[in-house]
Each structure stands twice: as C-alpha cells, then as structure tokens.
Amino acid sequence: MNILGKPVLGIETTGSVCSVCVYESEKKNLTISLNLDKAHSRKILSLIDFAVDSFNITPVDLGGICVSEGPGSFTGLRLGFAAAKGIAYGAGIGIIKVPTFKSLAEELSMTMSPGSRGLIVTKAALEESYVYGFEAQSGYFNELFELSLIENNVVNSLVSKWDFSKVFSNVKLDQIEIVEKTSPEALSVVRYAKRRTDFKFDYDVDFIEPRYFKNFIVKVK
Questions:
Q1: 110, 111, 113, 114 alpha-carbon torsion, rounded to 10°
Q2: Percent of the chain at pLDDT above 70?
Q3: What is the dihedral of CA 189, 51, 38, 205, to 10 degrees?
Q4: Which stretches within the chain are classed as H helix?
Q5: What is residue 3's predicted lDDT score, i.e. its pLDDT?
Q6: 109 with 126, same domain?
Q7: Considering only CA atoms, which of 122, 106, 23 is closest in space to residue 66?
Q8: Would you say residue 217 has pLDDT above 80?
C-alpha cells in the first residue's frame, strides 16, 4: 500500500504483453497479463476494470498509477499512457513513470545468480535494437551501462566484451541463445516505483508522456 494508504494501479504495455496490476501489499495484489494479438487496444481497459473490481474499489479509491515509460512499441506506449492519464485525470490521482528496462532488470535479477550478467535486447527498428546491461545482485541489480540504441550486427561483440551469461531478446541473434522476455510484469513496475520513489506521484498529468528514446522519422517512398 502506498504512502496515502491506498492501493496502486500498475500498467505495462511497452511490448507484446499487456499487463495490469492492483497492488495493496506484497501479500495482497493482483496481476493480469495477456500475450495476445492486439490485446493492448482491445483489452487494456477491461483488464483494468476487472483488476480494480476484484478489490471492490473504484478508480477514485486508488492512490495513484505506475506506468511503464518505455522505450518500446509506439502504439503500446500511446495506449498505456492514454489509459493511465484518462483514469488519473478522472479520479484526481497522480502518475509515476517507471523505467521499463530497469524494472525488467530488477525482475530478471530475482531469477539469476548474484554476480551473473544479463543483457536486454529489444527491437527498435529493422536493423537497430535498444540494449541494456545489468549485473544481478540479491534482490536488486547493478547497471553495467545505460540504455543505448545500437545496430544488431554489433550485439555479438557486446556479449563477448561484457561476458553476459543471459541475453533476453525479441530479436533473432546469430550464435546467441536468447530468452524471449523483454518487458516486465505490471507487478514489477509497481514494485520498482515503490522501492525507488516511495510512490512519489506526479499530479501534473497533462504533461506526462512516454519515453520514446529515439526520434521517429516518417519516410515517403
């Protein structure tokens, strides 16, 4: 439960999985995740409604919303933020933007041996990917290098240079075994916000936007 003594809503829509969470405590929380085609556009609001109803509350009873900020799918980010801002504006509550790759690294670290290294590789364009390197610790992680945008053909050299034991990716990589996990669960988004910000919500909702990281360029053929 947050500092206001109310449950918190978590939203993750940056990747293929559409995930929502209502979090009151580590002993009382509900997470729903769907990996279905167009789940973000068709299911996000109904998933939120179900999760909130399961706690026998309405949006005005929430203490705030934690939304995964990206980078990631442009459409997914817009839908996630539209849902978060609409609910926050209507209920008079605030939002926390949570770093997607950092909350995922923290989630993954809980399944890895302390000291082992992981690389997250997420598709950004046809020949480019977002990459983030981390070292697992007991209950948390150390950042090896900040989120970067690189060409896919240099990922192999990056793996060798940093001695990554696991690569989490939605990109096919030559001669590299991957784990297809590139977005956090909504519960991990909420947990990260709790640990790192103590649920310090931003109430200036109109100006809260996703982190796209790269500029999108419209090309005309």
A1: -10
A2: 95
A3: -60
A4: 39-54, 74-91, 100-109, 155-162, 186-197
A5: 67
A6: yes
A7: 23
A8: no
Distances 168 to 3, 44, 99, 181 between C-alpha atoms, Å? 34, 25, 17, 5
Residue 1 neighbours by CB under 8 Å, 6+ apart: 7, 8, 24, 25, 63
Q: CB of 152 within 8 A of CB of 127?
A: yes
Contact 51, 22 (CB under 8 A): yes
Structural domain range at position 120: 101-179
Residues written for the chain:
221
CA 193/CA 67 separation, integer angstroms = 9
95 and 34 in a common domain: yes
Q: Which residues, listed in sequence order, are joined to residue 64 by a DSSP beta bridge? A: 8
Q: What is the strand order of the sheet 166-169 is part of?
A: 141-151, 128-136, 117-123, 166-169, 178-179
Q: For residue 217, is it within any domain?
A: no
Averaged pLDDT, 27-53: 92
Interstrand relation of 64-68 and 95-98 (parallel, antiparallel or unpaired): parallel
Q: How far apart are the C-alpha atoms of 9 and 29, rounded to whole Å?
A: 10
Task: Choose among 154, 153, 57, 163: nearest CA to 118.
Answer: 163
Whole-number pLDDT of residue 218: 46
Confidence bin at 39 (pLDDT 50/70/90): confident
Residue 131 sits in the same domain as residue 28: no
Both 76 and 50 in one domain: the answer is yes
